[in-house]
Write a structure and sequence with these properties.
The structure holds 2 protein chains of 2 kinds. Chain A is an all-alpha fold. Helix content of chain A is about 75%, strand content about 0%. In chain A, helix 2 runs antiparallel to helix 14 and helix 8 crosses helix 10. Helices cover about 30% and strands about 20% of the residues of chain B. Chain B is built from 12 helices and 11 strands. A 6-stranded mixed beta sheet of chain B has the order 7-8-9-3-10-11, with helices on both faces. Chains A and B meet through helix 11, helix 12 and helix 15 of A and helix 2 and helix 4 of B.
Chain lengths: ~325, ~325
């Protein structure tokens, strides 16, 4: 087990180098540079420009810049934002809880509805329910996130007025930041109704962000369930005289979940990348929106640092999923 | 021996059909037999002759689109056909239980063997976890698993095929069934293990005085173990009778052919005797007697008309020209 953990953690390093190199290269391919953008309409003179370049270290060759950057990262220094002059790490930590809150809610939505729909479709195979679920999940999977978000906003927020259009909390509330998670902070605060407001702000973004993973999980659960229901041990369970419910929940689901869990892990990457779009649409003050804005400002340290941190999180979550896999599947637990 | 009110299981004209209503395929066609308390009934036949489907129908495990019909399906005094699903489940796994062909895939890979045995006890008998655990360990000991106290925590993938089948047997006898159906219990096992498993099954059957339905294509096994034998071909029963009589003088050409195909009857030859052809499938069932394309004695009558079951109750044969003592067809 320990060996497995060390090996998996060891894989973080090459991935890390790959991601840093790639983002570094990519960002220099984007036309425009931070200094021009800082200058705005007035612009800088040649002297001022050279001074700023030297200050930001942009006068050195790119490969040197990369190694300096890498050296700093290895010492835990992700640099400071060109725009806000704040360390990237501290900005990330301030915004990260908002993204986590959103992705966790989206994941909960995706897992609960995805599993339920998948199981129901498998049990009622070939029926109307099955076809409906499969159509919904195909549509959910194919729908562009931004369009889906706009549809939902139009219908639920604009026409019906059930949910707010954007943001995390109504402006009428003032909530002290304790954990950074709005749902928890509003519960801790003494503002009446703040929690419900935070919750209602979360509903649409979570659904939008969770739709694709939900569709993937539903399809995967269905096919995995169908396969398991045809296994000999299900026949054995029936021969024992167990109830349908018990057979499905205890004997089929446990085995059907094994491949689904792997898929869920892969969805975490999708959730974090989907969050970039979702946060921008819903003006959600999280990592995604921060990154998009930083790309616009050519805020190199923020983009690089942000992507590196996201990549690390994805790797760690997948590691966690692999460990969970062992909990569910005894055959993995006992083999090396 | 014939059926009585005291018979453990009475099956009368059991049919199982698959396919559409207009074009049904009868995997089992009007099959009748009975099992007495403490008796071993052997059901033999090639692959595809409907043995397993019949047993699944007895357990109530035939799913849509399969349709089960019978004139009578009685276990002790209970009519199995009129029971609702819940009442049927109460009997299944409790008074009637079953073990299957491939023990390695018949156990759930995600749970320990103890968990799976205890589940059967929990559902039908209840009791505290501790009692169930003690009982499960005792069952594992009864089926000859060494160190049952630690084996109870093993997962199926940690057991060999023979061990898995022993666990399956322990699970099947957990609630002291009156009838145990063993569907080719040794087919998937190593030859050396086969004898051990059969020995175990017969020992348990004698000790507990259970009715045992032993489904197999191994004639030698049936000859040794069974009290009575039912020979099936293409979903129908072609011959029934006491094991000793059937093996001394088979009356149906199919039974004769099965016995000729035993390696013992081909001693000194290069090839084993085999009945040419295969069991007819859904779309190629012949007119008349289903065996006629493969039967060495078939006449024009056999190709047109389907024979009934002839003979006294308990020793019947479905053939126009049952074989005599010398193994020749009577005309």
């Amino acid at each position: 087990m320990l060996q497995f953990l060390i090996r998996r953690l060891g894989m973080v390093i090459p991935t890390f180098i790959g991601v840093s190199l790639f983002t570094f290269a990519l960002i220099y391919l984007i036309p425009g540079d931070p200094i021009t953008i800082m200058g705005g309409e007035r612009g800088f003179g040649a002297e001022e420009r050279a001074e700023l370049e030297a200050m930001l270290g942009l006068d050195k060759p790119i490969w040197q810049q990369y190694f300096i950057y890498l050296g700093n990262v290895l010492q835990g220094d992700l640099g400071t934002s060109y725009v806000t002059r704040q360390p990237v790490m501290s900005e990330f930590m301030t915004l990260f809880p908002a993204t986590v809150e959103l992705t966790v809610c989206a994941a909960i939505f995706a897992v609960i509805t995805g599993l339920t729909l998948g199981i129901l479709a498998a049990i009622k195979r070939g029926g109307i329910l099955d076809h409906t679920v499969m159509t919904i999940s195909l549509a959910g999977y194919s729908m562009p996130i931004f369009w889906w978000a706009l549809l939902l906003i139009l219908f639920f927020s604009v026409n019906l007025g059930w949910t707010p259009v954007s943001g995390r909390l109504d402006v009428m509330f003032w909530v002290d930041e304790v954990t950074g998670f709005m749902l928890i902070d509003t519960l801790l605060s003494d503002e009446d109704g703040a929690f419900l407001s935070a919750l209602s702000h979360l509903v649409l973004p979570s659904i939008v962000l969770g739709t694709i993973p939900m569709a993937v999980i539903a399809r995967m659960t269905r096919s995995s369930m169908l396969e398991v229901l045809g296994e000999d041990y299900i026949r054995t369970a029936r021969a024992k005289g167990l109830s349908k419910r018990r057979i499905i929940v205890k004997h089929a689901l446990r085995n059907a979940l094994i491949p689904v869990i792997t898929v869920m892990g892969l969805q975490v990457g999708l959730l974090l990348s989907g969050a970039i779009l979702t946060e921008t649409i819903f003006a959600w003050p999280g990592i995604g929106k921060w990154l998009v804005e930083s790309i616009g400002r050519r805020d190199y340290p923020v983009v690089q640092g942000g992507l590196l941190l996201i990549a690390t999180i994805i790797i760690l979550v997948n590691l966690l999923v692999d460990l969970m896999y062992g909990v569910v599947n005894p055959r993995v637990r006992h083999s090396k | 021996m014939t059926e009585t009110d005291k018979s453990l299981l009475v099956v009368h004209n059991l049919s199982v059909a698959f396919g559409t209503k207009d074009n049904p395929f009868k995997a089992v066609d009007r099959v009748s037999f009975h099992v007495e308390e403490g008796e071993v009934l052997g059901i033999v036949g090639e692959s595809g002759s409907g043995k397993s489907v019949s047993s699944l129908a007895l357990m109530g495990l035939i799913d849509f689109p399969g349709r089960v019909t019978a004139d009578e399906l009685r276990f002790k005094t209970t009519d199995l056909q009129t029971l609702n699903e819940k009442a049927r489940r109460k009997i299944t796994g409790d008074e009637i239980s079953m073990i299957f062909q491939d023990p390695m895939t018949s156990l759930n890979p995600s749970y320990t063997v103890g968990n799976q045995i205890m589940e059967a006890i929990e559902v039908h008998q209840g009791g505290s976890k501790k009692e169930r655990m003690t009982k499960a360990i005792d069952l594992l000991r009864q089926v000859g698993i060494p160190a049952p106290e630690s084996r109870i925590n093993s997962y199926p993938h940690q057991l060999s095929g023979g061990m898995s089948q022993r666990v399956m047997i322990a699970m099947a006898i957990a609630c002291d069934p009156r009838l145990l159906i063993a569907d080719e219990p040794t087919t998937a096992l190593d030859v050396t293990i086969q004898a051990q498993i059969i020995e175990l099954l017969l020992k348990l059957q004698r000790e507990k005085q259970m009715g045992l339905v032993l489904i197999t294509h191994d004639l030698a096994l049936v000859a040794e173990a069974a009290d009575r034998v039912v020979v099936m071909y293409a979903g129908q029963i072609v011959e029934t009778g006491p094991a000793s009589e059937i093996f001394k003088a088979p009356k149906h050409p199919y039974t004769q052919a099965l016995m000729n195909s035993l390696p013992e009857s081909s001693e000194g030859k290069d090839r084993l005797n085999a009945l040419p052809g295969v069991v007819p499938g859904a779309n190629d069932r012949p007119q008349g007697c289903l065996l006629n394309p493969r039967c060495p004695y078939a006449t024009d009558r056999c190709r047109v008309e389907e024979p009934e079951q002839y003979g006294p109750r308990g020793r019947q044969v479905k053939c126009f020209y049952p074989l005599d003592e010398s193994g020749r067809p009577t005309v």
